[in-house]
Amino acid sequence: MPRPPGARALAASAAVALVLQGGVALLHGAAPPGRVAAIVAAALLVVGAARVARGAPAVRSLAAVAAPALLLAGALEARLAFAPVLAAGLLLAVAGALVLATLLMVLLAAPRALRVATLLLAAVATAALLGEVAVRAFVPVSIYDIVPDDRGGGECIVGDGDVKTLAPGFRGEYRHPEFPGLRVEINDLGLRDGLDERAPAGGERSVLVLGDSFVFGTGVEVADTFHERLERRAAELDPDRPVRVYGAGVPGYGQVHAETALERLAPRLRPDVVVVSVYEGNDLEDNMKLEGRRLGKVSSIEEDEAREAAERRTGRARFGLAAFVRGVRRPAYWLGASSAVQLVLPGLEERLVRRGWIEPFVPANRMVTGM
Question: The whole model's pTM is what?
Answer without folding.
Answer: 0.67
